[in-house]
Amino acid sequence: MNRRMAMKHLGGATTALLPLLGAGILFSSAVAYAQAPAHADIANAQGTTIGHATFTPSGDGVQVDVNISQLAPGEHGIHIHNVGKCEAPAFTTAGGHFNPTSTHHGIHNAQDPHPHVGDLPNLTVDDKGTGKLTFMIPGATLGEGTSSLFHEGGTALVIHAKADDLSSDPSGNSGDRVACGVITK
Fold it and tell me: In the chain, where are the structural domains located?
């Protein structure tokens, strides 16, 4: 019900309830803002922007869409890292993988039925150096909570030189960090 319809529907009680209607509108806006889509501009070790990622709340997680260019052909490990800092050339400032549930890395690990939140599928790059990937991060959020990509210190999306083996802890033997983007609202 929009505000005009609510005022008509409430008749004489409108004056008393207007402040509450306004608070409801503000509250709805705050909730929508907390779950607003996010993005990352992905740069290589030379500081050149080579791609973008969007993060959209979806069901029990976050959908990620990655578009990349100027990478070596083949498979590349791609992960959410625990610090929202991407200082080239090695991107070590992004810290380790985002792992708020303290689980093992890799969908094929023998210890946990589910990999940690920062563990993502491999990104395939074609012979022209471009790649696209869409996937879900179950359990992640762009709002509040321990699995929020916006925890204190932030997070970053990191692309590695080699494919993730999907089982080795802590990083899947995916090699050097070749590109990085801070996740922002």
Answer: 3-34, 38-182
* Span 32-53, pLDDT tens digits: 344 689 999 999 999 999 999 9
Q: Report the DSSP pairing between strands 38-44 and 131-138.
A: unpaired
CB 64 within 8 A of CB 53: yes
Torsion of CA 169, 184, 67, 123, to 10 degrees: 0
Contact 80, 156 (CB under 8 A): yes
Which residues are within 8 A (CB) of 48 and not within 5 positions of it... i.e. 6 or more apart? 70
Which superfamily, per CATH, for 38-182?
A: Superoxide dismutase, copper/zinc binding domain (2.60.40.200)
pLDDT for 173-185, tens place per residue? 688 999 999 999 9
pTM metric for this prediction: 0.78
